[in-house]
Amino acid sequence: MTLIAAGSVALAAGLDRLLAEPPAALHPVAWLGRGLAPLDRTWTTPRLAGVGVALTVPLVAAAVAAGGVAIASRLGPLAGGVAAAVVCFTCTSRRMLLDEARAVVAASGADLPAARERLRALAGRDATALSAGEVRSAAVESAAENLADGLVAPLAGFALLAPLSLPLAAAAAAWVKAVNTLDSTFGYRSHPMGWAPARLDDLVMWVPARASAVLLAVAGGNPGALRAARPLARRPTSPNAGWPMATLAVVLGVCLTKPGAYRLDGGAEADGALPTPADADRGVVVVARAGWLAFGLAATVAVVGGSALAGTAGSSLPVVIPPC
Q1: How far apart, in Å, do the first and last CA atoms of the chain sit?
Q2: Do 247 and 213 form a contact (C-beta atoms < 8 A)?
Q3: What transmembrane ranges does the database entry give (predicted)?
Q4: In whole angstroms, what is the distance from residue 162 CA to residue 304 CA?
Q5: Is 189 helix (H, G, I), strand (E, B) or coil?
Q6: Does residue 29 register a pLDDT over 50?
Q7: For the chain, what are the domain ranges?
């Protein structure tokens, strides 16, 4: 089971590298997004409705994912492993976001209006008045933040429960992805029912955001960046998003900023300088490396956890003393 779980993570990484994302018409996360549309309406008690949605929708997504993997597993362990890999692949996102970030950075120097337009796919901010440096900053920030919620968080859920069973691992990844999707859809201060989805996402993302900061520091060859990033991480209003963004700012030695909201000065050498195209390209490379580290760590956790469970089960077997 442990090797099959690790193989599922490896296959998910391979699918991400080869395909980036499933076609929109076949993407379960896109289906979820369309399914949430009828819930975006006026409620008599919006906060209570938000609580109900936050509790129910992720559980439904988890049940569907677990059921699919359980059915496939009846055909054999290999079929179950492939099904789990497909769930893991659809619940994570790495290459597509990195490709978009690279495209924004490339356009920022040649066609700033096009770069501002492409930024809409990455960052939820008004880009009409952003300078080229601010556009690159937004692209780098989004790449760092999406490492946490688009990859590390669902991967962590999958890896931690994979030693118990592949259906549970798939359920955990789908649950985390649904929580994040709810936050992206409703988790705004201006949205009447957004309080519960936003608070649940804050809770779920607490560890993955900080784990992503560690991965970025290691991938950037600067483990000490975490100490310098700690005070900067508190500047964004989000309790979690600041960690990967601030760490990457320190690793790159640049200033990452959202005008009117926060400035993350990555060390004295940054001196308020926004990322150049070379800086931003390096930032995307660091995030890409951190993503591969996340896949490798998830596979390792699945194997080590499964081995530990197997060892515990073996040690609990009764000792049979032969008769004299």
Answers
A1: 39
A2: yes
A3: 48-71, 155-176
A4: 11
A5: coil
A6: yes
A7: 2-308
